[in-house]
Write a structure and sequence with these properties.
Strand content of chain B: 15-25%
Strand order of the largest sheet of chain B: 6-9-10-3-11-12
Distance between the termini of chain A: 15 Å
Strand content of chain A: under 5%
CATH architecture of the largest domain in chain B: 3-Layer(aba) Sandwich
Radius of gyration of chain B: 24 Å
CATH superfamily of the largest domain in chain B: P-loop containing nucleotide triphosphate hydrolases
Bound molecules: adenosine-5'-triphosphate, magnesium ion
Helix content of chain B: 25-40%
Largest interface: A-B, 25 and 30 residues
Structural class of chain B: alpha/beta
CATH topology of chain A: ABC transporter involved in vitamin B12 uptake, BtuC
Order of helices and strands of chain A: HHHHHHEHEEHHHHEHHH
Shape of chain B: globular
Shape of chain A: globular
Oligomer: heterodimer
Number of helices of chain B: 17
Strand order of the largest sheet of chain A: 1-4
Chain lengths: 319, 502
């Protein structure tokens, strides 16, 4: 039992140790204000990471999510500001487009047996290209709905704000946990990551599941794009570059095996928070360049991959 | 349906044809399965047994032919479709999903659920109940991969049995089961048969065929040789149907030879590891075959792993040519020119995407170091020599090994170690999953290797076989070497009584 949850427990331990270090240096880390900001600042990353966890669990990869986030922002800005479409309608439209986009990628991956890496790489260029077709400018979004939504927040004791977008992220995680661990779809995702051939011979609907997985990933990327646009109040073609890699890093640090089959959604939440923690620490520290975030994440990622290798080798040997 | 039959025809296959590039795996094959019948499907390695099954269950698309189930023409689009038609299958190479829990493996795709949510508690309860019918009391919440290969095999069978409403297909299901487990499987099959389910049973163990089958169909090179009730088919006729030639009885027996004398090539004194295997003494001389016999889990494979350095000994000393040596890793063992073909070849051995040639030269290349590439011509020569020597059925050496039939893959793995020209070779179940013809070939090969001065340690569950080629036999029980038999004592009967005695 303990052994099975070891990767998540280690991730959790890293987070707690990291938090304590931050706390020792900057006592204000205990305030709900810092915690509220940690959740809000990483909301969009958390949402995409949920989708990415499903993709990686199934043994695949989705490189298109950063571009889909940017496309969503640009689409919303153009639709709302240029064409005067109701923001809520625009949200629904863009979520629909995202889902279709992902389903298309899933279909290609399944029907032609093309590696997910290639298909989603193409998807990445396609979505980014579409941004530039819509506009090359950064368009601010001034719709009153945006102001209203960003105003929604629970004030926690101590003055911290649990914002609407933080809540959206937490709800996404809760839904992701239920989907992964308590539905047939979830079991099928793990089955695909365990061994695709065996899964097929056991009667798992491989095609349907593959399409569902990439559809979910792009849908959540579009949702993350909406959240991101609340956060920045603008749509810009070059936004969110490299987010796909941050997301993959968060998932792996969260204890999910890159080769698929093993991992949890809750681990991904901790992975996202660890990244947020490093970022916050560097902001507080003030003298370090923000590139140190990348270096720290790189080091962590490396450590975790080595650790996973060690763990899986150890569990093989103990049989 | 023909009214003249006493039992209705459940499954009727006519003119089934399936070709792969370079091979016609099935050539107009007919096959009829009745309700309430256990039907043995036999043939040599590469005869087309697994292909027949896979075409039937929609893994492969057929080139021609018809399939009727209960008189209705059917075409399974994929394995899921076959399941929904009531055809449950244990495929030869499937190990289910090691990362999922046992319960999920048993119920994937049909988990009990409410409002779209899986009822995990209910699923586990039913899984435990299902497995208790097989005498398996395990925690079904644990991942499948944490159990032994034998337990996994039973779980695969339990799953297929539970899924088969009309037809149950078992492709070499007993390969990693011990005698008692096989016995309880047979009880279950007989129960299913009484309920009117038709069972297709593929195996290379002739004893098992005669123990349960009602009827036998034999394939050879993708063609139907014949189909007969078991009562009308004596063993010797069955074997000649499979081989297409008469197999002399002595082909399975070794010529009487004088006892091998001389200094041992390898020797182990008080060698052991706590909780793995009790310390033992063992010596093998050049040209000698020592057999390790015992039940599954008695410590046979553990002994082999210790000797080859897969596990590290914590007591005793190893000697080669009388000089003490240290064997802490398989690399050490390979440097001493030891070879080892592991039991679990499915997962530990083949690299499915690489060609047969590449698989065969793999160990040799690794031994030489990757910087000293073996020239292509030499590789081809080695591969072709072993393909011929072991009669590996393939159009050429460049075919990916994953596309060979199961038994032929095993022969290629044996070739991999033989190619390194070892001085001391450990064979763990060398004939498992290998057909009678190749069986005899491998035994003859073992003899020939001995004459060349190779020292051999062979692990086998087949007592007749081990008795026929071993100079000495070490019998193991409960992770201890209990007795060493030599000379006239080496017989299946003595081995059996030694295993059984207390
Ligand atoms: N996917 C494939 N692609 C190409 N050739 C194949 C494929 N599967 C099987 N074959 C070939 O078809 C022939 C029949 O193979 P099959 O697996 O049906 O044999 P089998 O009777 O099950 O043998 P075994 O007892 O060794 O399991 C072999 O020559 C094999 O090489
Ligand atoms: Mg086969």
């Amino acid at each position: 039992m303990i052994r099975r949850h070891l990767p998540v427990l280690i991730t959790l331990a890293v987070f707690i140790v990291g938090y304590l270090i931050c706390l020792a240096q900057f006592p204000s880390f205990a305030s709900t204000r810092v915690i509220g900001n940690l959740l809000t600042d990483n909301a969009f990353l958390g949402i995409v990471a949920v989708g990415m966890t499903f993709v990686i669990l199934s043994g695949g990869i989705d490189l298109s999510v950063g571009s889909v986030i940017a496309f969503t922002g640009v689409f919303l800005a153009v639709a709302i500001e240029r064409y005067g479409i109701n923001p809520y309608l625009a949200f629904v439209l863009v979520l629909g487009i995202g889902a279709l986009f992902g389903a298309g990628m899933g279909l290609l991956i399944h029907a032609f047996q093309i590696p997910a890496f290639i298909v989603t790489l193409a998807g990445m260029f396609l979505a980014r290209g579409l941004c530039f077709v819509l506009t090359t400018d950064s368009i601010p979004i001034n719709a009153p709905a945006y102001g209203q939504i960003t105003e929604i927040a629970f004030v926690m004791p101590g003055g911290g704000r649990l914002t609407f977008i933080a809540i959206v992220m937490l709800v996404t995680f809760a839904a992701g946990i239920v989907l992964a661990h308590f539905t047939r779809f979830g079991a099928n995702v793990y089955a695909l990551g365990g061994n695709r051939t065996s899964a097929e011979l056991m009667g798992v609907p491989v095609g349907r599941t593959t399409i569902g997985i990439y559809m979910l990933s792009s849908l959540l990327a579009a949702l993350a794009g909406i959240v991101f646009s609340f956060y920045t109040s603008a749509g810009y073609s070059l936004a969110a570059t490299g987010v796909e890699l941050d997301t993959i890093a968060a998932v792996v640090i969260g204890g999910t095996l890159l080769t698929g089959g093993y991992g949890t959604i809750i681990g991904t939440l901790v992975g996202v928070l660890i990244q947020g923690l490093i970022q916050t620490y560097i902001t507080f520290e003030g003298t370090l360049s923000s590139w140190w975030t990348k270096i720290a994440i790189g080091a962590l990622l490396f450590a975790f991959i080595v650790l996973q290798r060690g763990l899986s080798a150890a569990s093989l040997r103990s049989r | 349906m023909q009214p003249t039959r006493e039992r209705p025809e459940l499954l009727e296959i006519r003119g089934l044809t399936k070709g792969f590039p370079g091979v016609l795996a099935l050539d107009h094959v007919d096959f009829t399965l009745h309700a309430g019948e256990i039907h043995g499907l036999l043939g040599e390695n590469g005869a087309g047994k697994s292909t027949l099954i896979k075409v039937l269950t929609g893994v492969f698309r057929r080139d021609a032919g018809t399939v009727r189930l209960d008189g209705q023409e059917i075409t399974a689009r994929d394995p899921a479709d076959a399941l929904s038609l009531g055809i449950g299958t244990v495929y030869q190479e499937v190990n289910l999903l090691p990362n999922l829990s046992v319960a999920e493996n048993l119920f994937i795709g049909r988990q009990p659920h409410r409002f779209g949510l899986v009822r995990t508690g209910e699923m586990r309860r039913r899984a435990a109940e299902l497995l208790s019918g097989y005498g398996l009391a395990i925690d079904v919440a644990n991942p499948l991969g944490s159990f032994s290969v034998a337990v996994q095999q039973i779980i695969a069978i339990a799953r297929a049995v539970d899924l088969s409403a009309k037809v149950l297909i078992l492709d070499e299901p007993t390969a990693s089961l011990d005698a008692q487990e096989v016995e309880s499987l047979f009880e279950i099959l007989k129960g299913l048969k009484a309920r009117g389910i038709g069972i297709v049973f593929v195996t290379h163990f002739l004893d098992q065929v005669y123990a349960v089958c009602d009827r036998i169909t034999v394939l050879r090179n993708g063609r139907l040789v014949g189909s007969k009730p078991i009562a009308e088919l004596p063993r010797i006729e069955l074997v000649s149907m499979m081989l297409g030639r008469e197999l002399a009885d002595e082909a399975l027996h070794r010529n009487q030879r004088p006892a091998v004398t001389g200094e041992p090539l390898v020797a182990f004194k008080n060698y052991g590891r706590r909780r793995l295997i009790e310390p033992f003494d063992l010596a093998v001389r050049p040209g000698e075959v020592v057999g390790l016999a015992g039940l599954l889990g008695s410590g046979r494979t553990e002994t082999a792993k210790l000797i080859f350095g897969v596990e590290r000994a914590d007591s005793g000393q190893a000697f080669v040519d009388g000089k003490p040596v240290r064997i802490a890793t398989p690399r050490d063992a390979a440097r001493l020119r030891f070879g080892f073909t592991p039991e679990d070849r499915k997962t530990e051995g083949i690299v499915a995407e690489l060609s047969i040639r590449e698989n065969i030269v793999l160990a040799l290349q690794a031994q030489r170091g990757w910087l000293h590439q073996i020239p292509r011509g030499k590789q081809e020569e080695i591969a072709n020599r072993f393909i011929k020597l072991l009669d590996i059925r393939t159009p050429d050496a460049e075919k990916p090994i994953g596309l060979l039939s199961g038994g032929n893959q095993q022969k290629a793995l044996l070739a991999r170690w033989l190619a390194t020209e070892p001085r001391f070779l450990i064979l763990d179940e060398p004939t498992r999953g290998i057909d009678v013809g190749a069986h005899a070939e491998i035994i003859r090969l073992i003899e020939r290797l001995c004459e060349d001065g190779l020292a051999l340690l062979v692990i086998s569950s087949e007592l007749e076989e081990i008795a026929s080629y071993s100079d000495r036999v070490v019998v193991l029980r409960d992770r201890r070497h209990v007795r060493e038999l030599s000379g006239a004592e080496v017989s299946a009967d003595t081995i059996m009584t030694t295993i059984a005695s207390h």
